[in-house]
Amino acid sequence: MAAGYHFDPSILREYDIRGKVGETLSDADAYALGRAYGSYAVRQGAKRIAVGFDGRLSSPDLADALSRGLQDCGLEALRIEMGPTPMLYFAAYTLVVDGGIMVTGSHNPPAYNGFKMVLRKKSVFGAEIQRLGEIAARGDFVDGIGSESHHSVMDAYIERLSADFAGPDDLTVVWDAGNGAAGEVMRHLTERLPGRHVLLFAEIDGTFPNHHPDPTVPGNLVQLQEAVKREGADLGVAFDGDGDRLGAVDASGGILFGDQIMLLLAREVLRDNPGAHIIADVKSSNVLFDGIAAAGGKPVMWKTGHSLIKSKMLELGSPFAGEMSAHLFFNDRYYGFDDGLYAAVRLLTALKRLGTTLKAFRDSLPHLHNTPEVRLPCSEARKFEVVNEVADRLSARNADVVAIDGVRVNREEGWWLLRASNTQDVLVARCESDSAEGLARLKAEVLSELRLSGLHPDLF
After folding, report:
1. What does the pLDDT read at residue 229?
2. What is the C-alpha separation between 55 and 87, in angstroms, rounded?
């Protein structure tokens, strides 16, 4: 048995592996992951694994080391070109491979990177990620002589993205890749679509020189909003660093949050799948869950996390699911994985099928008072302890709590949520009410609970 290798425990997350390059993540970690994942896969009969990477400066070297680790397990590492995470998923679903690993830091700052993994078309997450850590620590590796090959999937992926477009042919749409990994695919996709398309920051640049590619943060959408107004566009869409999430703004520059985008898409999906289960994460608005029911669907509240959502979709046979963070999953005419570019195509299609504009849809939504996802820095060890302490205090008071992921507290004036992030050293809070006064009371309660656990944040 080979010598063991120990990952920094902070990088083994719930649904992916992620760390800061040069501090908690290195090329040696990538090689060890290739050995651990490769050994795990070989023992399940795997022979060929697809490897993709995003545009971060550290990604090519990490992908090379990962590939070497897979080969030293006797596997063929099938290298696809640089691109978004969903292009790697597409390869894993459509090529003759047994799994895939994407080197990506997702929406984290440029110094971070990581890995998203699938095996047999299912996400590797949770206990399986911990098992990979154990395989590495024991040095329990399969040895072999593998190989590396290269295969381009970009053209086939773009063809598949455009195949389900049935939207208006006269829209002006602004597309913002934020210099992330979706840029090149976005450029070629829009060449195939009717209408007028204005592209922002399509050049892939891992330093993200124009703005950070996270469309859930309003400040990252300012340039998109300006361009929509300047161009007289009907809407704008934006993607995160690895292209698996979608942001949107309407013709006036108004931002649609992830759960609002979900509601529009759910209405379209339910036209073809009446009575279906539609899944949304615990951070989503009651407007979404109520709207799904009103459209004839069965709303399901579930845990946050792309791997967790995908597993729940398989369990329930759901045609569509999403997260407040704008991961959107179509199992309706697609493969069930989160794909921001495909979601953009379906968004345009939904506007035509539902006979609306994005602005008219946004204007039709109930006017609620809510916060965005507010993030409070908190150490990896402490963040889960704080949530547990809050949960214990709420239980002692017999509060109305949904505890599937952190604590979501229902009050007469609305609800509030506190949960520990699985991707960053932060606590995430969100509040929603039907009145400004109610929202103030909910925010005060969140702050009170955090102070009781020794934190003194200026969150809101």
Report:
1. 98
2. 13
In which residue are the tokens 């070497």 written? 68
Q: Is the pLDDT of residue 388 over 80?
A: yes
Taking only the tens place, the pLDDT of each residue in 74-94 is: 999 999 999 999 999 999 999
Q: How far is CA 427 from the centre of its chain?
A: 17
Long-range contacts made by residues 455-458, C-beta under 8 angstroms, separation at least 24? 455/376, 455/378, 455/386, 457/376
- Nearest-angstrom CA–CA distance, 246 and 243: 8
Give start and end residues of each alpha helix (H) in 209-324.
222-231, 258-272, 286-294, 306-316
Helical H segments across 273-357, by residue range: 286-294, 306-316, 340-354
3-class secondary-structure state, position 122: strand
- Residues designated as active site: 106
Residue-range definition of the domain harbouring residue 329: 156-364
Residue among 226, 225, 223, 179 at smallest CA distance from 202: 179
pTM given for the model: 0.94
Element (H, E) at 130: helix 127-138
326 occurs within a structural domain: yes
Which residues 6+ apart lie within 8 Å of 287 measured at CB? 259, 260, 263, 365, 366, 368
How many angstroms separate the CA atoms of 22 and 26, rounded? 6
The DSSP call for residue 302 is E
Helix (H) or strand (E) holding 50: strand 48-53
Q: 314 and 268, same structural domain?
A: yes
Q: Please tell me whether residues 212 and 284 are part of one structural domain.
A: yes
For CA atoms 121, 124, 128, 131, give the dihedral sign: positive
The number of folded domains in the chain is 3
Whether residue 59 contacts residue 110, with contact meaning beta carbons closer than 8 Å, is answered with no
Rounded Cα distance, 344 and 102, in Å:
21
User: Which residues, at least 6 apart from 318, have a Cβ–Cβ distance to it below 8 Å?
Assistant: 276, 277, 278, 279, 300, 312, 331
